[in-house]
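Subject: sequence -> structure tokens, single chain

Hey, anyone have a minute? Need the predicted structure for the following. Not urgent.
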Amino acid sequence: MAPGAETTFTASYTVTQSDVNNGKVHNTATAKGTPPTGDDIEDDDEEDVPFDSTPGIELIKSGVYEDADGNGKVNPGDKINYTFTVTNKGNVTLTNVTVTDPKVTVIGGPIASLAPGAVDNTTFTATYIILQSDINAGQVDNTARATGKDPKGKDVSDDDDETVELGQIFDLALRKTTKPGQLTVFKPGDKVTFEITVFNQGNIDATDIDLVDYIPTGLTLSDANWTLSGNKARWNGAIASLTVGAQATVEITFTLNNDAIGPVITNIAEISGAKNKKGVADIDSTPDDNKDNDGTAKNDEINENGKKGGDEDDHDIEPINVCPDQKCLTAKVKVNRANK
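Reply:
Had a minute. Here:
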């Protein structure tokens, strides 16, 4: 090689993941030559080739409802089973990868090392036990976080939220009965008290339950807790709250008119209005103050579906035996004694 001359050598190097993790490739080259006389001569040169380090992580959280008791509806104690998919979206290896969730205890991990592009969907799982408040809300919302460390020891994280819808069932029923301890046969001038019991048969809490009583011919309202409105009586109060599985009873008292005619007078009561947090309609009845749109009335029936042709279970009838005079009462007493 002549004095002042120069020449170029080329070489290729295949970058490894450890190089990317380090952020550069460092190496040293040596040029060496033999002069006409004397020892060989040489020169070294170092070169650093930097890389852009772009750490990244992605979390996808998925929840699946489990009917733990197998009864076909959402109840407290049912479960949501969560899986967590973690992906390394960057170009450097992540270590000590964890998943945390404020609502549940996450089982599994940490992942010791997660290479770029790698996906893990089996390490982390969690189970959430459903509460009544969740069912009232109609869903369970929460957010999980995946965190890993890049080669420089810095945290890299990603959040993902998940909403699991919960099936809500709004189902109120009403049963009307004659209050125990009263006469079995009533005559004009007697008072009769009925008990109206409302049941929450659904899976969400009910609020602001209003009641109406349809007053039949032969009875006069004699109860300050109710307000007369034409041939209807409306309860002055409201059942403020009725939790799932609970029941509440309200009384109403009437006086038999002098012209009360037997042998039976039938009284009807109905739920005229009710609310819930999400405004879900009653599954098998329609609360209102119209006794003529409730299907064929069946005494004490609280399980039929009025929206499918059955008896609406938010209303009920209760008959009482009536005798208009002493002669009838005497006959009734004799028949009752004979049947004993």
